[in-house]
Amino acid sequence: MDLAYTLSGFVVGLLVGLTGVGGGSLMTPLLILFGIPPVKAVGTDLLFACITKVGGVWVHARKKTVDWRIVGLLAAGSLPASLLSLLLLHYLEARGWKVDVIIVPLIGAAVMLTALALIFKTQLQRHPWFKTRSHPASLNVSTVITGAVLGALVTLTSIGAGAIGVVALFLLYPLIATTKIVGSDIAHAVPLTLVAGLGHLGMGNVDFVLLGSLLLGSLPGIYLGSHLSVNIPEKVLRIALASMLMLVGFRLIAH
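The chain above was modelled as a monomer; its predicted structure follows.
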């Protein structure tokens, strides 16, 4: 097991524990910059995200901070979109397309979108346009569509289930408690990353030695970060993480 990967897992786990976001947004670009093929980086990170978030779901479920109706609506859009995205990847690979050429800029764009979502999250939540209640039927449709977008984005890039998903839910459900938004987003991320990760596994895009190295560092990192988070201002962490993501995203787009 490469010590550099374990250390990367620890740093990413620490940041996830501190901020609640940034797992895929940091891990996948880091793996690509380390020289891991982009498709393999995406596939490995998806199973990595699934395993690390299972514990979060258990905690939120016990605290009753998961809205299972929202999770179901998101999954109704994201799981079919994930399967279609996997079929697209398989089709392109079977015809000799260089999928990496498509995925790397997509990852860069997703990382920068995540950074913008983190930076402007508070302003977006306060905007009067998002304070109005939508008709329940149209809100349900919007949630399913949001799930479909997240499903495609996460399957192709492993990014989007954290900050982008949370911000989207904040905008759709501004009156729901923050803890329930976060809990619902984590609960939705587990089946989505599992389906997408297994699909990538079937295409040979998962490195189990790499996965083990990452988990060896990330699990204690998340534990430590969760305990340190109460002592560091959330705004400071959010801006620092967003700045790092913007740099990584720009580097990938210009790769």
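Residues 68-94 form the longest helix (27 residues).
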